Input
Amino acid sequence: VTDFSRRRSAVFEALAAGSEADALLVTTPANVRYLCGFTGSNGWLLLTAGEAVLLTDPRYAEQAGAEVVDARVEVSGRGLVTLLGAVLPAIGPVRPAFEADHVTVALRGKLEAAGELDWTATSGLVEGVRCCKEAAEIAAVRAALQLTEGVLLEVAQKITPGQAETEIAGALEHACRRRGAARMAFDTIVAGGPRSALPHGVATSRIVGAGEPLMIDMGCVLDGYCSDITRMLWVGGTPDPAWIELHDVVDRARRAALEAVRPGVACREVDAAARSVIAAAGHANRFTHGTGHGVGLQVHEGPTVSSRSDDVLEAGMVVTIEPAVYVRGAHGIRIEDLVAVTEDGCDRLTALGTEPILRGIP
Ligand code: ZN
Ligand code: ZN
Output
């Protein structure tokens, strides 16, 4: 059973520590879900010291009644701002805060026009609590990842030269749904040949040729939690030895980063561990993004594992380790694992090996 009251107390502590506010209007869907269980697309959670109120519209009345735990549900067809204005007076005088990372400038104007309240902007409060996962959340990420790994292996067996990237992406996505995924966590990346040098080469109509590398980066959502994995394939024939050598560099960078993961370590040190291996191989300028990111209810969440990050690893965090080398116009290699930070190191959630998946000519 999810302990929503623990989560709410942690958020309230963070609110009190960083501001004079005594109420928080949670509007980010993943945060609303995290704090009360509601999964609909239109719901705000108003948190005060003594109360939690979920505001939604009639489309979600039944769903909210079934999903929301330990919070009052208020439903109105006249819009959430109007509903908030009706609910607030009964709660008493509050100094409310809003989530500046999610509230638009237009919505802020409406909130301010709705009452005589002095709104405070907050950033990353709920996200900061979400960073450190409960055991059940780590298990949910692992389950989503296991599903994805099974799909990757199954579909990879059927990849042949002559298929379009979109056809392969479609097969991957269909297999995820067949195995019970609610949706994909992001647009599936299937990038063949020189397109593998694009860090975010989402599938196009390009035909995969024989004797080409192929990058697949995919993730799905299962029970609300995301997965994320990248593997390299070689389609048709034997891989180019120089490509294999580069793949080995990236894999050594992945291992170096993995070995650096433990509580108390700065995320930038983990990034540096991967980056130094790639730099030593002469590719310093070809690793153009950070080493990883948190994964949970959202596929990109805290902490950030990059050279500019101020985040420090804590037990319970779930992060990707995804070093890469991109050689423009030729090929790119990225290998992405998912790990959970433990008390004394990390637990690799990814079970699949990192060696290239080879697909010979049938
Ligand atoms: Zn990925
Ligand atoms: Zn990723």
Remarks:
- The two ends are 50 Å apart (CA to CA).
